[in-house]
Amino acid sequence: MPATDWTLTTEGPQPDRTRTDITRADKTGADGPRAEATPADGTRADGPQAHRTDGADGTRAEERPAPGTPLLRYPPRSLVILTGLPGAGKTTLLRRLYGLTGAEGSPAVSGPAVVIDSAQSRLRWRGRLDRLPKPLRTAAVFATHVTRIARALAAGHAVVAHNRGCAPYVLRGFAWLARRHGAGFHLLLLDASPEAALAGQQARGRVVAPATFVRHRRRWEALLTRARAGDPSPAASAHVMTRADAARLTAIHFDATESR
């Protein structure tokens, strides 16, 4: 299959490239994410992001909901990793999109996709590894999480998976896993300010250690900078969402066809 140039498409006039969707030619020929929107005010869902100005409620301008109901479309057999700072709202987004309750101890099936949140693996091991040191508990949860992703890909499903870690070696591992099973690898980046992410951690009642958060922030900012500069590697595409974008997202579909 010929190589494909990845694009972002919206209703109305088609821009050549947007700020929030960074793509490259993919050797597998699979198509990249397409965002479709039906804005109430005629603005584009992929338009310029708002400047960072705090509102009376303490939120930044780009974190307040904007009009529109965008969809993201990926090809079948895609692995989409949703990542961002701890507390950014990744689990909240998956629960809203797929009707999850937080009580699931195993992946959820939604049409052609399997939805895999790391919280499902934590729940699977809750109370069973309490005697182990925390690093070993974390390793067991992560191994379970990755194994579930691998099994879903091996079964031919598309996968939407939460993963807070965005270290280069972690992303390279997901890229290898996708290639092994003939799937395209895509990043969905949820951009929240460190302050908003810390508030999200406090709201959920699980706050990461300060040193751990600093490490996550350093890796996240490096990934975000690269993606916005046009380098989504090791993924085929990287789509950046603000919290406002996430609040407007209505669905993720796996039915995109190859670009012509």
TrEMBL record:
<keyword id="KW-0808">Transferase</keyword>
<dbReference type="Pfam" id="PF13671">
    <property type="entry name" value="AAA_33"/>
</dbReference>
<protein>
    <submittedName>
        <fullName>Thymidylate kinase</fullName>
    </submittedName>
</protein>
<feature type="region of interest" description="Disordered">
    <location>
        <begin position="1"/>
        <end position="72"/>
    </location>
</feature>
<keyword id="KW-0418">Kinase</keyword>
<feature type="compositionally biased region" description="Polar residues">
    <location>
        <begin position="1"/>
        <end position="12"/>
    </location>
</feature>
<dbReference type="InterPro" id="IPR027417">
    <property type="entry name" value="P-loop_NTPase"/>
</dbReference>
<feature type="compositionally biased region" description="Basic and acidic residues">
    <location>
        <begin position="49"/>
        <end position="65"/>
    </location>
</feature>
<feature type="compositionally biased region" description="Basic and acidic residues">
    <location>
        <begin position="14"/>
        <end position="29"/>
    </location>
</feature>
<dbReference type="GO" id="GO:0016301">
    <property type="term" value="F:kinase activity"/>
</dbReference>
